[in-house]
Amino acid sequence: MTMDLFDQSPPEPRAEPICEGAIVLRGLARESGAELLAQIERVAGQAPFRQMQTPGGHTMSVAMTCCGDWGWVTDAKGYRYQQQDPVSGAPWSNMPALFRILAADAALKAGYAEFEPDSCLINRYLPGARMGLHQDRNEKDFDQPIVSVSLGTPVTFQFGGMRRSDRPGRVPLEHGDVVVWGGPARLRYHGVLTLKAADHPLTGACRYNLTFRRAR
Ligand code: MD3
Ligand code: FE
């Protein structure tokens, strides 16, 4: 066998189990990072990033926008999915084909065939932003997985158990990493530690996370 020291092909993404039902596909979205960021800008042109209010009256440190048929929103009335942007009253923009293809490919690699998300929540973290431990339970069918794509500066992700009080483990997530969680991991508590100041060539100080969901 000949050694090719100049092989330019990207390394095969490594799959690392986090816990039963959750897997990290390291670098799966790295190649498409720039195009994903261009699509995030397009979506945010229609529905600008906003820091929403929790039902308890706190302003989230993470700014959010959505695309697809259903967008996740929170305000004094609670957490829910809805078809209109509460800021403009207009429908969310279409989910870009690249988003749908990436989400379906990641889900398939994790063992979920034919994942067709109808919602993409886009989170934007600036230094100091965090997301406390929570469960994602506003979706209709917990048999459907969730796919998460990290872009920009690195962060430490927390994954706990089925109770908020279960001591969480930690996973570092970098630009291009994709997490798929379903089955026994679908309702685990999870969160994101405070984002540290850093400089990424494509996003500056920013971290973005896309979560693809089947809301209905
Ligand atoms: C669950 N977003 O928007 S979830 C959210 O980085 C949200 O912004 C996170 O939680 C973010 O609701 C990314 C990624 C994730 C990874 C591993 C898990 C969730 C998990 C393992 C078990 C359970
Ligand atoms: Fe979540």
SSE layout:
Layout: E1 14-19, E2 22-26, H1 33-46, E3 63-68, E4 71-75, E5 78-82, H2 97-109, E6 119-125, E7 131-134, E8 146-152, E9 155-159, E10 169-173, E11 178-181, E12 190-192, E13 207-213
Antiparallel strand pairs: 1-2, 2-11, 3-6, 4-5, 6-13, 7-12, 8-11, 8-13, 9-10, 9-12
The structure holds N-(carboxycarbonyl)-S-(naphthalen-2-ylmethyl)-L-cysteine and fe (iii) ion.
What does this structure look like?
With 216 residues, the protein is mainly β. The chain has a single domain (14-213), classed as Alpha-ketoglutarate-dependent dioxygenase AlkB-like (Jelly Rolls, Sandwich). It contains two helices and 13 strands; from the N terminus they run ββαβββαββββββββ. The strands form three sheets. Strands 1-2-11-8-13-6-3 form a seven-stranded antiparallel sheet, covered by helices on one side. A hairpin with a 2-residue loop joins strand 1 (14-19) and strand 2. The radius of gyration is 17 Å and the shape is globular. The model has no long low-confidence stretch (mean pLDDT 96). The structure holds N-(carboxycarbonyl)-S-(naphthalen-2-ylmethyl)-L-cysteine and fe (iii) ion. N-(carboxycarbonyl)-S-(naphthalen-2-ylmethyl)-L-cysteine is lined by residues 18, 22, 121, 123, 131, 136, 148, 157, 159, 179, 181, 185, 188, 190, 192, 209, 211. GO terms for molecular function: broad specificity oxidative DNA demethylase activity. InterPro entries: Alkb, AlkB-like, AlkB-like_sf, Oxoglu/Fe-dep_dioxygenase_dom.
